[in-house]
Amino acid sequence: MTLYELVEPGLVTCAEPRYRIAEIRAADPLGADALLAAVPAMNRDADVAALTVALRALVPELDRVDEWSVVDALAAMRDLGLLLGSLKRHGTEPLAAVPEALPVLQELGRRTDMVPRDTVHHYTTWNPLGRRRRTYTGAEMEAHLQDAVRMVFPALVAALDTCGRLARLEPYDPGFALALDRTAQHVQSMVDSIDFTVSHVTPEFFARTLRPYFEEIDIDGRAHLGPAAAQVPLWLVDLTLWQCDRSDPRYDAFLAESVPYSLPSWRAFHAAHRGGVSAVGKLAAALSWETAHRVPPRLTASALSLARVLRILKTFRARHLGIARKAYRDDLRLYEAGSGGAPVALLRTVLDLTRDNETLVRRALERPRTPAA
């Protein structure tokens, strides 16, 4: 049994409507199944006229939106979003072509407490499976990329729960190492996801075929990014492990742009923890007070667990950087920046920061101690 299969059932009973994945996937408030099945053919033919007609046909009246639950509103944004990205890919600003969609997108954003367009969660986690799957191209590689992102959502939710507990503990607490070990188990799903992507999606397909569908669109004079892997907030795990007090201005600036694309509860998590003391900061302070020849066993366990989860994060980021370098190499890329708005160089920066924090923890544990009297 995979970690995904262990964690996902718990989301079904959660009061948070954005975690009711099966319900959102099943929802079709716009009656869009048949029309969206034709989108890959429209995109193949670059049929802007047909895409415009399709978007206009799906835009609901505002009074209908007022009657929808959060689940229905999320599903509607998902389905409208497929057409937004398709039109922009072919050089058309969607709201210039279909201006009546603007108030609907704004209302859907208000009702769901999210940005007024689709995000990576709409495109992957909340996307139906099987014949109802919404895709830009209909290609198998696109479905694989969606699945690679989809598989991390339940584990990430669980990781944020353990990180929340971790933030309330000190390194001498027995629960500190336990929370880190559980976080490591959840974060491993990110490594599994990146390995799956490497095995099933070529850099050429992403760079040349799929990446153009993730461009930003103009909504009432403001640019809004399309679905991007950067919106899967592994940075919320970073936040409590090291980032809240050991960051870099470039990473901070990227997070300021990325946070609005998160779920409401995740934005609240960021707001609650961004001014705190990280696990690395707590551990470094605790170890600095230990001058005896032997570090207490609980502190040693905390340090080893923290180094382990940082090593997993480092592994993920090294592999992610490798993929990004291939997809954005000079002879292949169509864009300078990633779909999340950041250059590939930022991935190198975050990898270096992760590695530096792992090294700090490891060296602090290994440093010579004053012999006991």
TrEMBL record:
Xref: InterPro entries: PrnB (IPR015029), Trp/Indoleamine_2_3_dOase-like (IPR037217)
Sequence intervals crossing the membrane: none
Source organism, top-level taxon: Bacteria
Pfam families assigned to the protein according to its UniProt record, in alphabetical order: PrnB
Descriptive protein name: Monodechloroaminopyrrolnitrin synthase PrnB family protein
The organism of origin for this protein: Streptomyces coeruleoprunus
Lineage of source species: Bacteria, Bacillati, Actinomycetota, Actinomycetes, Kitasatosporales
